[in-house]
Amino acid sequence: MSILKEIVEHKKKEVAKDKSLYPITLLEQSIHFDAPCVSLSEYILRPDKVGIIAEFKRKSPSKGAINLYASPEEVSIGYMQAGASAISVLTDKNYFGGSKEDLKTVRKYNFCPILRKEFIIDEYQILEAKSIGADAILLIASILTDDEIKKFTSLAKSLGLEILFEVHDEEEIGKFIPEIDLIGVNNRNLKTFKTDFNYSLDIFNKLPTDAVKISESGINDPKVVSQLKTAGYDGFLIGEYFMAGGHPEEKCKQFIDAIKNN
Ligand SMILES: O=P(O)(O)OC[C@@H](O)[C@@H](O)c1c[nH]c2ccccc12
After folding, report:
1. Among 3, 7, 55, which is best to mutate for testing ligand 1, by the most ligand atoms less than 8 A from CB?
2. How far is CA 125 from CA 19, 35, 64, 230, in A?
3. In this entry, which stretches build a coiled coil (predicted)?
4. What is the pLDDT of the chain when averaged over all its residues?
5. Which residues face 62 on adjacent strands?
6. For 179-190, what is each residue's pLDDT tens digit?
7. Domain containing 65: what range?
8. What is the mean pLDDT of residues 5-14?
9. Which CATH number do you get for residue 236?
């Protein structure tokens, strides 16, 4: 079974359990429906920033442990001071060592847009995203049907959340709908775990013109960001390169400074 399939199977059980422990009616009562969201797409396009979405990532199926005991408070504040445009927080526990608590902590200390990085397969998780203070959610084209994409998009938008729609190939780009704000090309091949940013370059012309365009994964060189920018990408999602080693915020700062000086 592919890793993505395994994660999705696991996620279905997890969501079923969450729903039985904390029914959707209770979850809905905990939501501040009027709480405003910060627009991820607007922050990405801000001319005073370079478009980095810095990710808080403790571990991954491809790498194993990256920075297991990092503090979401310290890292996220450091990312923002370094000049990041937004923060992505993995909330999957089993495969990525994240949690909803991590996202809540990041929310508590930052005003920037926060992306909930999760394998969303159920509307429950979208309500949850709103209740913990996320501004945007990830929808992964390869694990969702056209119907789910429509349904999840309209629920998210009704809550004020933006959507980053992740694709790997042209067929998945075909599932994009105009209500979606951002499209992300994942440079990681989920079968081999290899990353190659040329993938983003090759597919660029096929992307919907109106969406904000993000290149995701395996980015570890400011020169690559410059190349992707020239090609037309607006944003860059970076996790492992910042998180590996002791000081994610310092690496992020050096990286952003290098782009600015390029
Ligand atoms: O750590 P990297 O290689 O910089 O990649 C970050 C991000 O793109 C990656 O974590 C990611 C992209 N899509 C995902 C979907 C689920 C979980 C994680 C991801």
Report:
1. 55
2. 10, 17, 25, 36
3. none
4. 97
5. none
6. 999 999 999 987
7. 3-260
8. 97
9. 3.20.20.70
Any ligand 1 atom below 6 A from CB of 253: no
CA distance 87 to 117: 10
Domain count, the chain: 1
CA of 56 to the centre of ligand 1 (A): 10
- Single out the residue of 115, 127, 99 nearest to residue 30, CA to CA: 127
For residue 241 and ligand 1, the question of a CB distance below 6 A is answered with yes
* Confidence band of 246 (pLDDT split at 50, 70, 90): confident
- In terms of pTM, does the model score above 0.95? yes
Cα–Cα distance, 65 to 51 (Å, whole number): 26
Catalytic residues, by residue number, are 55, 57, 117, 166, 186, 216-217
Rounded distance from Cα 217 to ligand 1 centre (Å) = 5
Looking at residue 1, what is its pLDDT? 75
Amino acid letter, 37: C
CB-ligand 1 contact for 216 (6 Å cutoff): yes
